Amino acid sequence: MTLQTHRLKNGFRIVTENMPGLKSASIGIWIKAGGRHESIEQNGVAHFLEHMAFKGTKRRSSLQIAEAIEDVGGYINAYTSREMTAYYARVLSDDVDLALDVVSDIVLNPVFSSAEIEVERGVILSEIGQALDTPDDIIFDWLQEVSYPDQPLGRSILGPAERVSNFQKQDLSKFVSENYGPDQMILAAAGGVDHESIVRQCEEIFGNLVSRNQNQLLPGNFSGGEVRHIKELEQAHFALAFEGPNYKNLDIYTAQVFATAFGGGMSSRLFQEVREKRGLCYSIFASAGAYSDTGTLTLYAGTSGDKVSELANITMDEIKRAADNMNENEVARASVQMKAGLLMGLESPSSRAERLARMVAIWDRVPTLDEVVERIDGVTVNSVRNFAASLIGGSPAALALYGPVKDAPSVEELQARLVA
Amino acid sequence: MTLQTHRLKNGFRIVTENMPGLKSASIGIWIKAGGRHESIEQNGVAHFLEHMAFKGTKRRSSLQIAEAIEDVGGYINAYTSREMTAYYARVLSDDVDLALDVVSDIVLNPVFSSAEIEVERGVILSEIGQALDTPDDIIFDWLQEVSYPDQPLGRSILGPAERVSNFQKQDLSKFVSENYGPDQMILAAAGGVDHESIVRQCEEIFGNLVSRNQNQLLPGNFSGGEVRHIKELEQAHFALAFEGPNYKNLDIYTAQVFATAFGGGMSSRLFQEVREKRGLCYSIFASAGAYSDTGTLTLYAGTSGDKVSELANITMDEIKRAADNMNENEVARASVQMKAGLLMGLESPSSRAERLARMVAIWDRVPTLDEVVERIDGVTVNSVRNFAASLIGGSPAALALYGPVKDAPSVEELQARLVA
Fold first, then answer.
1. Residues 349-378 of B with CB under 8 A from A
2. Strand A85-92 with A284-290, pairing
């Protein structure tokens, strides 16, 4: 593997990794602009913009964008997260130049025709409807809202239907001018790629962009609380979050080891206790997510209405037990799972390109595998127990409940059980 | 790449492919036993059995199974489809022997303790609840039921809650004795794997299994019809199926090229007409699936209740238009998409192992890439138009509707529109 990086004069960054033997490549542009960069009036505009990128540029119609990539058998896609928007393509190695041309065209030259905005509005309203129809999707939007209330970080990425119904060209252009500067952009590519050729192409395409000051992010203040939507569903959906480390805090590795040992696989405590021993659910997991200035430890399970109290209470008891007696074996296993998972993920050009972009966005460089392994190996049993203990002592929690959840405990009851 | 195959005396087949440079591997056992092999009384037992494999063997408890694989950072999983059950693990290359030991243990030696059966019943009922809560999941079960009514092929894989509530050890054992013979089993492995070592291990583990006659499958008779579940949902979910070729019929390539050009990507006709031009939906696609003796061309879209009629009618009009004027460019693009997709998929050990098993199950050998490319290249514009035309002339259709679908057209109305 050959990792190479380059920075243009205007701050635009390039990171590539050639993977010998691969006949395909993943290439994309990651922009440090997402839901969090929106004011309340703009909520949903970053995602709307991501859609509009595919609806026509100065050089290509929407059909021509699709055809350009699909004519060579590739695919092109995009996503918006809370801190990033990504546009990427997967193609055979011979078509990397073409893919870069198309991806950069949709990022830099979208035309935002009003007719196309009206059409795409319907598509996005439909996407919002689909999310609302999927309980184990929408519950995480509600959990986020309760975790970070009245803040950009707490708002949904799709935005509320009312705002989406009103966005116009000037709203999109304003968000672009505020957030799509060259120093917010990272070009990442992995697989059968040639660094020099990509750099040359980027110089030409992005070299003349003028840097701008991006708006400062409002800090994320995890405050917690509860949202409970009672509905006739088959399953009672239970999601709980605590504040965790941000991604620049090295404790994030402790949080991840904890999440893995606690609810990350079949041997984890939650899976064993709640599913394997008691048969209370099909899906259950813990995960540690992170943003630039905050993070969340999230727990989720789906169960029946008459079992949601039992499940919630056991989950609390398991947190206490973890703080008390999470052991060497469990921590060692979780570390190995994280390290092997990292290695396996890197065998795919798509996840490798994704990681390159994320690392450059966070650290302005790509940590070596050895460095990451060292961080993971540095996590001790004590630090993991302490992390579990930190969830207990009056630490705020956010609870989202959906379905037949009338009788589920409140967030205060769950917190009381933690300290009991 | 080095593809190698081997057959034990009892019919057990082994297929491996070493992928130079990879540090991980995927290894699993695919068994020609799925939902279709169940009698009506057994409906859900193949899937229940798949769950019970993880609940303890003669040598390992459920926790020990999970720990064995996760201690080395791997993961283990399984799925049940209508014609197959698969148990597989992804591990680093050094741990392939261990993974084979664990996967074969759970397939051959599950103990089906009654206590564990009771616990797992709760898990599966929860899984059924989750499927019912996910409209764009459950609608495909209903579509299958309408496509193949009163037949094993039409029944859901999870089975109805009433039957799942009653399965006992003898039901599981009976299904195993009927369907888990060595000539129904294929061991497939890809990535950093060593063929000779896997064969030696398989001789020892599987060599003494005694062949048995598997029950003959009841033929799949696509008959069509309609199911409409009216419910207050955000989206109206629309799924339509026609009969297509089975997987031994070389016309399957024509069906796949058609599905790709018609609704397989962003440049496809359905995507362009329904989403890009009219903004009627977020998700829309066509796909061609196949079984041993029948197949289905499936269309799906989610839209709002007031637009489902428009969407359904346009979809019919597009089928007619495709029969009339699907062109060289579209067919060429769809072929390239299929070929590139195949190549990219083969860069992942998991999808490669999956393909090896599927090819051996169908053809008793693994066709070379060149062979497949030749088949795809053999698809002509005329054959694609003819395939579209075959959906029109009174060919049966199956329609599933879910959500605010009171005013959606009936299957007869859609078929009438096709011939109008």
1. 349
2. unpaired
